[in-house]
Amino acid sequence: MKRLLVIRFSAIGDVAMMVPVVCSCACQNPQLRITVLSREFMRPLFAQMPPNVDFIAADLKGRHKGVAGLTRLFRELRAMRFDAVADMHDVLRTKYLRVLFRACGVKTACIDKGRKGKKQLTDAIEKKLVQQKTSFERYTDVLRALGIGVNPDFRSIFGNGRGDLARVSAVTGEKGTDRWIGIAPFAAHKGKIYPAERMEKVIGILSRMDRCRIFLFGAGNAEREILEKWEKQYNNTCSLAGKLKLDTELIVMSHLDVMLSMDSANMHLASMVATPVLSIWGATHPFAGFMGWNQPAGNAIQMDMSCRPCSIYGNRPCMREDYACMNMIEPERVAERVKQLIDKNNLV
Questions:
Q1: What is the CATH number of domain 165-344?
Q2: Using CA atoms in the order 329, 330, 336, 337, what is the torsion angle rounded to 10 degrees?
Q3: How many beta carbons lie within 10 A of that of residue 40, not counting itself?
Q4: CA atoms of 341 and 299, how far apart (whole Å)
Q5: What is the assigned CATH class of domain 3-145?
Q6: C-alpha angle 10/291/123, rounded to 5°?
Q7: Residue 309, preceding bond cis, omega within 30 degrees?
């Protein structure tokens, strides 16, 4: 096998979780040419890959939209003469591409999402609280099904170092001896978001620490408005919303002493640059297999409740209607865990 196509269109956290697997595969199989097919805004995640990895963007809202667009995309890809296709997504778009490749004699394999186990994990009556395979393991299984040997062994997209701070210092300033704390307080669904008023208390506590700087991560106008309010209200706090793009946000994350996040894309992005991540879990649970790369189980803050997890993605309404899984987590507990994690990593 000479050429491999790896497909995953969304979401950003899931695509980020491919990075350790793809990078390890490239390093351990230098004779293999790997092409990652995803959306254009994912490109920075693969910019620091080994030289045998390249990236192609699918324009799913334009040139490659709909069946005709996907057929056009297939023709473009077919010209590259891939020997195998790894479908890490298994949705209608990728199924269609897979069928076309298979019809041409190209070997394909797709991800097993483990739906049965995840359903049992979230069952309200007969819940089975069992650790499911991680996405990293599921991605690795796809490659092994194609006969590609890979043992994920990855540190950071920046290798053994960190990103070039000079590229962002105009926004962040120099680090010096300060402890840098990142806080990403948002997620796609309410069941995964620590209440804003509680997170604000966490920021208030941490902002009073000596030699401490807090960087707030978010996107969109609504999130930006909240973060800028906190920036003005608390000392040593800087909102990065709207100031940096993904590639430069990753640089900042690589210099953080700790990232505090939800079960969200930012947890995975910070993990990709070898930053310790303290994550808060509500409706979802690390047992579903979405914990950040190389993040120990002890870095998850969560309540032991019989109804948890009630959702794999956090998009189901709370059956109790009070989101106690989040509201019962005290801000003081979160702030103390942040301080402990900094101390643990000898960053005082």
A1: 3.40.50.2000
A2: 0
A3: 12
A4: 8
A5: alpha beta
A6: 85
A7: yes
Do residues 307 and 337 touch, judged by C-beta distance below 8 A?
no
The pTM of this model reads 0.96
Write out the two tokens for 8: 């995953």
CA distance 221 to 25: 38
The continuous run of DSSP H or E covering 331 comes out as helix 331-344
pLDDT score for 347: 47
Structure tokens at 188: 């796609």
Mean pLDDT by 10 residues, the chain (348 residues): 96 97 98 98 96 98 98 98 98 98 98 97 95 98 98 96 97 95 97 98 97 96 97 97 97 98 98 98 98 97 97 95 97 97 72
CA of residue 46 relative to chain centroid, distance: 13
Asked whether the domain spanning 165-344 has the same topology as the one spanning 3-145, the reply is yes
Q: How would you classify the pairing of strands 3-7 and 277-280?
A: unpaired
Phi, psi of 125, deg, nearest 5? -110, -50
Three-class SS of residue 140? Answer: helix
Q: Domain map of the chain by residue range?
A: 3-145, 165-344
Strand 300-301 relative to strand 212-216, pairing = unpaired
171-181 in b/e form (b: 16+ CB < 10 A) is ebeeeeeebbb
Q: Starting at the earlier edge strand, list the strands of the sheet with 33-38.
A: 53-57, 33-38, 3-7, 84-87, 107-110
Please report which helix (H) or strand (E) contains residue 161, including its range.
none
CB of 96 within 8 A of CB of 17?
no
For residue 348, the model assigns a pLDDT of: 40
Alpha-carbon span 89 to 75, nearest angstrom: 20
Can you tell me the distance from the alpha carbon of 232 to that of 95, in angstroms, rounded to the nearest whole number? 48
